[in-house]
Amino acid sequence: MSNLYERIKEVRNDSGFNQEKFGNRIGLSKSSVSWVEKGKQGISNNVIRNIATEFCINELWLKEGIGEKYDDKKILTNEIDFTKNLIRDDLLELNKKLASAVPEDYITISISGNTSHFK
Question: Domain 4-70, CATH 1.10.260.40 — does that match?
């Protein structure tokens, strides 16, 4: 059975990040990540929570090695948030295109869902 430090290294390796990028995501320096992975430096509960949140890891698995590694609920929530942001960005871009397509000498007034255009 692996220990906390080995599980942290496993999460980093799974992420494809080097120690510096991984540290940036969880609030540690590259050297601190190295020391933690070697078991020569302790790690706070806040950093453990950061790892679990950032990488959709089951916090109990990370701390104790119990349960599934990945937290499906966090993964689903992240995917929903990502999709909402994509839709929002697409709508903003569409709105800009539509606004630039309306001639400048038109005035649009919208009251209670009724829209009127005046020249």
Answer: yes
